[in-house]
Amino acid sequence: PVIDIRALGSHGYFTHDPGFTATSSCTSAITYIDGDEGLLYYRGYPIEELAYQSDYMEVSYLLIHGELPTAEQKRAFETSIRHHTLLHDQMENVFRGFRRSAHPMAVMIGVTGAMSAFYHKGLDNFDPQHREIVAHRLIAKIPTVAAWAYKFNEGQPFVYPQNRLSYAENFMHMMFSSPCEPYEPNPVLARALDRIFILHADHEQNASTSTVRLAGSSGANPYACIASGMASLWGPLHGGANEAVLKMLEEIDDVSKIPGFIKRAKDKSDPFRLMGFGHRIYKNMDPRAAIIRQTCYEVLDELGLRDDPQFKIALELERIALEDDYFIAKKLYPNVDFYSGIIFRAMGLPTSMFTAIFALARTAGWVAQWHEMLSDPAHKIGRPRQLYTGSARREFVPLDQRG
Ligand code: ACO
């Protein structure tokens, strides 16, 4: 049942729901999740059909506009994205202001936020055409930002986008090409990466998307709002989990040690959790995890890595956890982050870039949600309430009289 708080509000009631476990913050027509059945739809299309029959450009268009594009619309969208892939020349200075050792997510948050300094004047968030340009710019530029954050880390020259390449190939090119050697795109890996982008493109009102909406609800600069979403995504309970999964698999090191880690995950005195397991909404298999597992087989086969020891540990960990009473009782299943790290690592992508790739893919969802929010004439600034637990009124004591 849905209780409409707008009706209660007029009577002075409000809900207290830490973690928003039972509170909807908005209406949205973008993404539908049925956590009990393990269903995920973008604009009514099952994720499985989009993952296997569509591509990330088409899905981005779908998320923003609500309909799949015609061939003509898709061409125009891709042309616009290609047109915007370059960063302003001065943005290079923003990268150079960071320490070389900075985490790529820290650099991405900073650089994306800095875009607000380049694209602010004359920007009208309430003009749909302006919003469309913002969406295109962000989808186009974030792969460049992510790849350059990595190149900066590595002390390598920045690689400019190659607009004849597909979206996923272009990202791989900017990551892996060097002035000495161009990267040769591999169609199987590019397709797998594009599919991972689709799976991560949106997931309704999660922490980072809600952050983007809340920041944007005040009419703030959208580039700064997307940077705030990235900051939220970075946490290990959210998009940072893919990095944490790989670290955990490295730590487990051998299938014989899995039972010990399962035991730790169940021990309430130990803060350790099985990373890549559990989800606030899914109380059944995360449908994205099943697709990613299948994609993992395809990528490892392509690279001749089917015997990858970490993949074996992951499969065995999943098998044991799914048969364990604790995980069954708490409905803890592998989530989208469980297998993605193994794919990224096999592709040669460094662990520190895993969350950055998630952020890249989620940009389409963030801009679609921001656009949807501002398109609603009834939209209001987000302003949660609180239950005050501090002291009652106290008398101020001047500094020289305090004991
Ligand atoms: N390992 C062991 N126990 C777990 C795990 C886990 N991965 N996840 C949840 N639990 C247990 C909790 O200890 C809690 O037990 P209790 O009832 O005895 O207190 C119970 O299951 C419910 O967990 P909550 O943390 O209350 O569930 P919530 O919905 O708040 O959290 C979350 C969901 C954050 C995803 C959680 O399952 C978790 O920490 N997972 C590991 C991190 C992870 O994989 N994050 C990625 C999420 S997907 C994404 O963001 C793309």
What does this structure look like?
Keywords: Acyltransferase, Transferase, Tricarboxylic acid cycle. Pathway: Carbohydrate metabolism; tricarboxylic acid cycle; isocitrate from oxaloacetate: step 1/2. InterPro entries: Citrate_synth-like_lrg_a-sub, Citrate_synth-like_sm_a-sub, Citrate_synthase, Citrate_synthase_AS, Citrate_synthase_bac-typ, Citrate_synthase_sf, Citrate_synthase_typ-I. This protein has 403 residues and is mostly helical. Helices cover 54% and strands 2% of the residues. It contains 18 helices and three strands. It has helices at 5-9, 47-53, 56-65, 71-83, 91-96, 104-118, 128-154, 167-176, 187-200, 207-216, 222-233, 241-252, 258-266, 287-302, 309-322, 325-329, 337-346, 354-375, and strands at residues 31-34, 39-42, 45-46. It has a three-stranded antiparallel sheet with strand order 1-2-3. The mean pLDDT is 94. Bound molecules: acetyl coenzyme *A. Acetyl coenzyme *A (ACO) binds at residues 19, 237-239, 241, 265, 273-280, 330, 332, 335-337.
